[in-house]
Amino acid sequence: MLRRTFCATCIGVEAITVTVEVDVSPGISFFLVGLPDSAVRESQQRIGTALHTVGAKLPGKKIVINMAPADLKKEGSSFDLAIAMGILAASDQYLFNYLEDYIIMGELALDGTIRPVNGALPVAVHAKKEGFRGCIFPLDSAKEASEIGGLEIYGVTHLDEVISILSGEVSVVPLIPQKETSESRSMFNIPDFKEIRGQESAKRGLEIAAAGAHHLILSGPPGSGKTFMARALAGILPKMTSAESVETSKIYSVAGKSCSNGGLMKERPFRSPHHSASLCAITGGGSASMPGEISLAHNGVLYLDEIAEFPRSVLEVLRQPMEEREISISRLKYKLTYPANFMLIASMNPCPCGFYGQPGDRCTCGAAQVARYRSKISGPLMDRIDLQIEVQPVPAERLTGEGGSESSREIRERVEAARVIQNNRYMGEYNTNAQIPAGDLKKYCKIGRNETQFLCAAISKLSLSARAYSRILKVARTIADLDGGDFISLSHLSEALLYRGFDRKNWNE
After folding, report:
1. Residue 215 in contact with residue 344, Cβ under 8 Å?
2. Is beta strand 343-348 parallel, antiparallel or unpaired with respect to 216-219?
């Protein structure tokens, strides 16, 4: 007898339905076809042992299992549950009334318990789009998918629970999304801006970067607070919108790095890979075609501490994702596209010893060493960084003084207000000023005659590129939003130009 069940597999962050066709007929054999890998082929032993825990068995007949589409390679153990349900139905051991209404996924343990699987969230989104009644996942995996409305999401822990759901019993009920607490922000390990002494220019630059999702680099001697300030940035980022939360959570679901509370991610990711990270770790790919750091930082921050210590090959690969906000990974066996809409925040020393340009002749580096060190960050990459800020050591009187500074909460309120202005302006077409395409600059970044003359003179004097021109306008637009202004004024443009410090100094010369 032929029966069908449905499961799914993820290609990148998008899911595709896999139809499991099970036929049980007279004979003694077991065939599993449809390009299964070793983990899928080994499901026979897991399923046979697990079925005994519910009083069922693997029938001693001819069993043919086809996983369609047959030309798509099936990898992993998440198909166990769908195959087991198909076998039980095709062998008439159970009568299932809702077998084809659900996408079923889960890895079976030998005692019948169900282990978590990756990719539950994109599968649930796909199931809703395809018109399925719901999804049956392992409990730990189902929590992240429970917030997808209009879909029954069941979280199960044992094989007998799946049987009861498909049989129409009411012993298991769909999961209900957890209510978000009023203050769920994880602030325990994030420095507060009120702890930062001095560095007013850098703090202002970080506020602008957070408000418009602009790329930023801090350069200064050791101990000037670059890393501390960069990590404090996480405390002033606005919460993600619902759409951004789903987008980011899908990436983490595929990567097996779901949120600790089991639901959707609410806080923007802050990824800080070590400078020894490989090219594949940053971009994604590998044998399992997993998302890399730039995709895990989607809608959040990719922080590169001591960016000049990263291999140049790793840094250069960032150029295209910084412009296109996605990365296409082409390998021999697959071609995938992952989202990569991240804010690049970087920090570095001005030279190998760190004291170039500081008083007291402390720098021990020759001109060639300094040039070689800075050349790791190419001109095209630096040109893509909107805010370029030099950080100086904090004077002793500022370090020891009692003067307070604004808290992260106060700054975050201004950042969130600026984001609201941007959301209302773009109406979902894009989210932040940094995403404005070149064709819409004149529409959203209008400037008057005096401002145009000022900007033309600055571009000519500093020999700025067309890309730098567009990024100056976007930063000025963000500064105007922070001020609550409808128009970009001369003061907004002037401040935006101040943050192109490395352009003024011919960074690689």
Report:
1. yes
2. parallel
- pLDDT at position 290 is 87
Say yes or no: 162 and 231 in one domain: no
Q: What residues of the chain score a pLDDT lower than 70? A: 170, 178-188, 259-262, 402-404, 503-509
**pLDDT for res 182:** 42
Domain with 103 in it: 2-167
Are 299 and 394 in a shared domain?
Answer: yes
**For position 402, what pLDDT does the model report?**
66
pLDDT tens-digit map of 424-441: 999 888 889 999 998 898
Q: How many CB atoms lie within 10 A of CB 112?
A: 20
User: Looking at residue 58, what DSSP letter applies?
Assistant: -
What separation in angstroms does the CA of 320 have from each of 274, 328, 433, 452?
A: 21, 10, 19, 29
Apex CA 359: angle with CA 353 and CA 363, to 5°? 20
Q: To which residue do tokens 């799946």 refer?
A: 162
Q: What is the DSSP string of 65-101?
A: EEEESTTS-B-SSTTHHHHHHHHHHHTTSS--SSTTS
At 506 the pLDDT is 54
Question: Residue length, the chain?
Answer: 509
Q: In this structure, what DSSP letter does residue 312 have?
A: H
Cα–Cα distances in angstroms (integers) from residue 280 to residues 56, 249, 277, 313, 416, in the given order: 45, 21, 8, 11, 34
216 with 155, same domain: the answer is no
Tokens for 39?
A: 């983990």
Nearest to 254, CA basis, from 291, 214, 303, 218: 291
Query: Is the pTM higher than 0.85?
Result: yes
Same-domain pairing of 223 and 161: no
Beta pairing partners, 336: 329
Listed residue (312, 342, 313, 349) closest to 327, CA to CA = 342
Q: How many domains does the chain have?
A: 2
Alpha carbons within 13 angstroms on the beta-carbon side of residue 272 total 12
Sheet holding 301-305, edge to edge: 270-271, 301-305, 343-348, 216-219, 387-390
